[in-house]
Amino acid sequence: MTGPMTPDALEAALRRIGAERYHNLHPFHRRLHDGLCGIDEVRAWALNRYYYQSMIPIKDATVLSRMEDPAMRREWRERILDHDGREAGDGGIARWLKLTASLGFADEDVASTRGILPATRFAVEAYVNFCAKRPLLEAIASSLTELFSPQIIGERVSGMLAHYPFVSRDTLSYFTARPVQAKRDSDFALDHVRRHALTRPEQDAVLAALRFKCDVLWVQLDALWGAYVEGAVPPGAWRPGEAIAREEAA
């Protein structure tokens, strides 16, 4: 085993992971950005992505509960407020529901998550479980995909506004605040990792955590591609032209 990396070398290795594995490289993202998705593919993306967005504050709450330092908790809880809002109708989740509503979905149906793909559910829940069970340093490191999110958000918003008449700046308002929030959050997480991942095993673990998170994001797009580009929609998932199935009364 080689010796530990310097903090700068560790940061460079983390950024290489993003350059090689972040989901802005996925064919579905390129298709979405370039205006090649039909409206049902956009609807499927927004419906499934809601589950990821809705579970982020739950993931962050599990991380928060493991922090003994009040200063760290004060910093981390901003992530929860970003998504949940400070009052009803505020925050990232509410803004995502504005997008799905503009695409024809009822809030109740989206929030039920009944129409999402099995792979979406498995990937998101694996991420929440990872952050609950793995060492705190690794849980924090897994959030470092936020280092790369401003680029993908810029591509997504500009591409969707240019190519899809059924979206607007208002319906894409979730993304307005995210670059600033992601910069704040990634600055904190990167500083923590640089200061606390000091041994080579710790450094290898944080690199693996970031690779895992990239995989979580990538596999969700794999599932969308298979279901809605290639047409292999699994049982129980939303199908274009159909309403999201409601639960039958007992």
From TrEMBL:
Reactions the enzyme catalyzes: 6-(2-amino-2-carboxyethyl)-7,8-dioxo-1,2,3,4,7,8-hexahydroquinoline-2,4-dicarboxylate + 3 O2 = pyrroloquinoline quinone + 2 H2O2 + 2 H2O + H(+)
Gene Ontology biological process terms in this record: pyrroloquinoline quinone biosynthetic process
Family statement: Belongs to the PqqC family.
Organism from which the protein derives: Lichenibacterium minor
Descriptive protein name: Pyrroloquinoline-quinone synthase
Pathway: Cofactor biosynthesis; pyrroloquinoline quinone biosynthesis
Domain of life: Bacteria
UniProt cross-references to InterPro entries, sorted A to Z: Haem_Oase-like_multi-hlx (IPR016084), PqqC (IPR011845), PqqC-like (IPR039068), Thiaminase-2/PQQC (IPR004305)
Thiaminase-2/PQQC domain residues: 12-222
Enzyme's top EC category: oxidoreductase
GO molecular function: pyrroloquinoline-quinone synthase activity
NCBIfam families, per the entry: PQQ_syn_pqqC
Free-text function comment from the UniProt entry: Ring cyclization and eight-electron oxidation of 3a-(2-amino-2-carboxyethyl)-4,5-dioxo-4,5,6,7,8,9-hexahydroquinoline-7,9-dicarboxylic-acid to PQQ.
Pfam families recorded: TENA_THI-4 (PF03070)
Keywords for the protein's UniProt record, in alphabetical order: Oxidoreductase, PQQ biosynthesis
Statement: the UniProt record of this protein carries the keyword Oxidoreductase: yes
EC code: 1.3.3.11
